[in-house]
Amino acid sequence: MQMTIYILTVIAYALAGCYVLYILFFLTGIKRLKPHALKEDGDLPELTVVVCAKDEEPYIEKCIRSIYAQDYPKEKYSVIAVNDRSEDRTPEILEKLANEFSSLRVIHLNSCPDNVSPKKHAISKALEICQTDFVVATDADVLHQTQWLRSYGSMCDDKLGAATGICLFAKEEFKSCFERTWQSMQTLENLSHNVVVAGAMVNGFTITANGGNMLYRRELFQKGQPLKSHVVTGDDSDIMFEAQRRNYQVMFNAHPASVVHTVPEDTIKGVINQRVRWASHVMKATFPVILLGLTVFFFYLSLIIFPLLAFVDVLVLPYWLGLVLIKAACDFLYMCYTLKKFHIPYHFKHLFLMELVHALFIVIVGLYGTFGSFTWKGSTYTSTLPEKK
After folding, report:
1. How far lies 153's CA from each of 75, 77, 139, 146, in Å?
2. What is the pLDDT of residue 144?
3. Spatial distance between the Cα atoms of 130 and 126, rounded to a whole number of angstroms
4. I need a labelling partner for 154 at 20 to 30 A (CA). Which of 16, 18, 213, 345 fits?
């Protein structure tokens, strides 16, 4: 048993070493990340904004209006909104908005083919009528700053294949101090993914993207289908990987105007379900991303296992404490630096509380995302749908 504990300790510290190297790698990228200059009207390309919506009655009108409140030249952008089998007033609201904004085109979908991801099906239908070289994607519950489109249009050139930016949870009213606390923890946990993606992307390592805040070339859909239609989620990752595969640049939009605000989950159960959904496509990613995910997963798993080993040998506890300190030091360093760089306010106490539960949370989400199920827009899914025969 002593030999088993020794081997596990060596493996855990090897994983901790990898974790430190990952954080340093991301940190070098974040330090190199700088906002780009915004172009004048005459230098901006034509863009199409794609919004897919299912049962988004509370949010869709505010989203569309925030897109049409952009300072981008009106003749240089249009919007395609896809009503994906909504059962609320989303179709009526979109039609009303289409009467008000002449450049808004609405597609109504009444069905989705079997064994095809509904979100990816909706995106593909929008791309069928899109005519601009570049597409900007957002979600129906997202609000945008007035220079959001300009920040993306200013990035466009012959080398760019895809770009993404930060999605920030925004909630102004809380029912209790407890809700304020766990909502703040949720926001920081989500931001941790955003800033890791940013740091990695600057160094040429594409992990994923934010589907509610990204730009890509329409060409990626013209010469093949980048979306893995049988994988329920991960449309944003699919597009990023395809752009990289075609040797286009994949960039992170660091301009302050690129940050969008989205609606957070309003229950802890909802947060867990959402993160399970996000984790469900990780094992369908590229090999480097899978390797990164597995390394981090098993490092976090060791933080959970070692206290249990203390029942066998109490001398394990100092080694466990060392692992905890390594993770905390890396996380606090990276999060504090990146949040300051992006001018995102936070309370350290919420960051500390998130750190206390972070490893356990990620392990649970990772396991359930890979082997379990999640709900999305009223339906229950596993990570993949049966592939067409």
Report:
1. 14, 10, 18, 13
2. 98
3. 6
4. 345
Q: What are phi and psi of 228, to 5 degrees?
A: -80, 95
Count CA atoms closer than 13 A to 236's CA, side-chain side. 22
CB of 60 within 8 A of CB of 140? yes
The residue whose two tokens read 């080398």 is 159
- Is residue 55 pLDDT above 80, yes or no? yes
- Arithmetic mean of pLDDT, 12-18: 98
Report the alpha-carbon distance of residue 320 to residue 21 in Å, rounded.
19
Cβ atoms 279, 186 nearer than 8 A: no
Quick one: three-class SS letters along the chain? CHHHHHHHHHHHHHHHHHHHHHHHHHHHHHHHCCCCCCCCHHHCCCEEEEEEECCCCCCHHHHHHHHHCCCCCHHHEEEEEEEECCCCCHHHHHHHHHHHCCCEEEEEECCCCCCCCHHHHHHHHHHHHCCCCEEEEEECCEECCCCHHHHHHCCCCCCEEEEECCEEECCCCCCCHHHHHHHHHHHHHHHHHHHHHHHHHHCCCCCCCCCCEEEEECHHHHCCCCCCCCECCCHHHHHHHHHHHCCCEEEECCCHHHCEEECCCCCHHHHHHHHHHHHCCHHHCCHHHHHHHHHHHHHHHHHHHHHHHCCCCCCHHHHHHHHHHHHHHHHHHHHHHHHHHCCCCCCHHHHHHHHHHHHHHHHHHHHHHHHCCEEECCEEECCECCCCC
Q: Distance of alpha carbon 1 from its chain centroid, rounded?
A: 42
- Contact between 132 and 48 under an 8 Å Cβ cutoff? The reply is yes
Place of tokens 């081997």: 7
Tens of pLDDT, residues 324-381: 999 999 999 999 999 999 999 999 999 999 999 999 999 999 999 999 999 998 889 9
Q: How far is CA 87 from CA 53, 79, 110, in A?
A: 11, 22, 10
Tokens found for residue 292: 């990164």
Whether residue 143 contacts residue 62, with contact meaning beta carbons closer than 8 Å, is answered with: yes
93, 57 Cβ separation under 8 angstroms = yes
Residue 78, beta-bridge partner list:
48
Q: Over 80: is that where the pLDDT of 120 sits?
A: yes
* Angle formed by the axes of helices 90-100 and 60-68, nearest 10°: 20
